Amino acid sequence: MTRNIVAILRGVTPAEVEAIAETLIRCGITKIEVPLNSPDAFTSIARLAARFGAGALIGGGTVLSVADVRRLGDAGAALAVSPNMNPEVIRVTRAAGMLSYPGVMTPTECFAALDAGASGLKLFPGSLIGPEGLKALRAVLPKGAEVLAVGGAAPANFGAWRAAGANGFGIGTALYAPGDTPEGVGAKAAAIIAAYDAAFEGA
């Protein structure tokens, strides 16, 4: 099963990022985002892209500007995730050959993001919208639009999100928090994967 889980490694440092990522990939989570407000984030992203980019999707999060996008491209990233919906950031990201997942909350933002060329939608913060909110959005979104629930998706509600139309999730502290060891991340990843597989069985 290909799991549509983006691991959000907020706060990770370059010294530890490769060991953390190696653990996640070995567990079966192959999409990894280093938010740009992490310490020396572009160094971490460059290291991950060089070592794992051939077999994993490596990118940056909290991407707020065109300058951020260009630095991501220089680091070898393949993915840009934002908390907001900036059409210019989306367009430049796509023109650079990277996937773009902007943060959206309303129908207006969803359609503006798709019109700008977004690869998929980051429903954020998911805790405020909830599965019922996504269900309402799904009634009007294009059928093929990919939606990731972020900030409120957890093993206990993966099934509800999937039933409402979520294609996957962005997972932060439930997978990694600053100070976590690779072993600790592996244990968290195993629980996340088990819940995901149960929710998406047969998908």
UniProtKB/TrEMBL annotation:
Q: How does it assemble?
A: Homotrimer.
Gene3D superfamilies (UniProt xref): Aldolase class I
Recorded protein name is 2-dehydro-3-deoxy-6-phosphogalactonate aldolase
Q: Sorted alphabetically, which keywords does the UniProt record give?
A: Carbohydrate metabolism, Lyase
Query: What does the record give as its pathway?
Result: Carbohydrate acid metabolism
Family membership: Belongs to the KHG/KDPG aldolase family.
Q: Which PANTHER family match?
A: 2-DEHYDRO-3-DEOXY-6-PHOSPHOGALACTONATE ALDOLASE-RELATED, 2-KETO-3-DEOXY-6-PHOSPHOGLUCONATE ALDOLASE
Stretch forming the signal peptide: none
Q: Which NCBIfam families match?
A: PRK09140.1 (NF006600)
